[in-house]
Amino acid sequence: MSFTVYPAIDVRDGRVVRLRQGDYAQETRYDDDPLALAMRYADAGATWLHLVDLDAARSGGYTLAPLLHAISDRTGLRVQTGGGVRSVADVEAILEAGAQRVVVGSLSVREPELVTAWLRTFGDEHLTIALDTRQDDAGEWRLPVHGWTEESPHALFDLASRYADAGLCHLLCTDISRDGMMAGPSLDLYRELCRRLPQLAVQASGGVRDVADIVAAREAGCAGAVLGKSLLDGRLLLEDALRC
């Protein structure tokens, strides 16, 4: 299986930002213009971009279609993007705006029957299911919702298996405790996920600091890694990440 590096751009109020553990009150803003940053990532050799609409993730209604158009037209990057995806019309609009894959997060936990139907409608190459997880006191990986403030009835491995059986290919999995913390990826989690569900192309997200973390995620069985804060803070050069 090939391995893909996904530089990430999170956008809020038109600006590039990063949140700490998904907390909107713990936001770091960067000077970069989102389009200019995407162009730099393309110039560095990236082939994919992970684009997140943080405004839509909170309120619904994807707002980045003009930016997505511009990125597609001016960089040649393939884009997976989401935030606030609630309906078939949302998926259609994002694909029409130039995305290769639409990322479905909260809805994939709240309404799995609806989202598994979308896999049949749009095909497995046009959807990425994003499951954000954290371990409970018993050591089970749970799937909180509503900004990670409420527990859902679903466990990670059960729901991921359900999607795999429905034909899912691309799974983005974030360990909430590692998100924005620069503490390294949750390798034991990814090893277990890839062992149980080898048919999934798992994207590691959260905590990736350096080339060694990328190599470790690949050796754990992941098909890709999403890089956010490490690139924005200059701790990791995209060119080095792509070479590894």
CATH class identity:
Alpha Beta
Large-scale geometry: globular
Using only C-alpha atoms, the radius of gyration works out to 16 Å
Provide the CATH architecture. Answer: Alpha-Beta Barrel
Distance between the termini: 15 Å
Helix and strand composition category: alpha/beta
Strand order of the largest sheet: 1-4-5-6-7-10-11-12
The CATH topology is what? TIM Barrel
Number of domains: 1
- Full CATH superfamily name: Aldolase class I
Please state the average pLDDT score: 92
Query: What is the count of β-strands?
Result: 12
Number of helices: 11
Note poorly predicted spans.
none
Helicity, as a percent range: 25-40%
Instruction: Give the biggest sheet.
Output: 8 strands, parallel, barrel
Explain how this protein is built.
This protein is of the alpha/beta class and 244 residues long. It has one domain (4-243): TIM Barrel (Alpha-Beta Barrel). Helices cover 37% and strands 30% of the residues. The chain has eleven helices and twelve strands. It has helices at residues 34-43, 54-59, 65-75, 88-96, 106-110, 112-122, 156-165, 187-196, 211-219, 229-232, 238-243, and strands spanning 4-12, 15-20, 23-29, 48-53, 78-82, 101-104, 127-135, 141-145, 150-155, 170-175, 201-205, 224-227. Strands 1-4-5-6-7-10-11-12 form an eight-stranded parallel barrel, surrounded by seven helices. β1 (4-12) and β2 (15-20) form a beta hairpin. α1 packs parallel to α3 (65-75). The radius of gyration is 16 Å and the shape is globular. The model has no long low-confidence stretch (mean pLDDT 92).
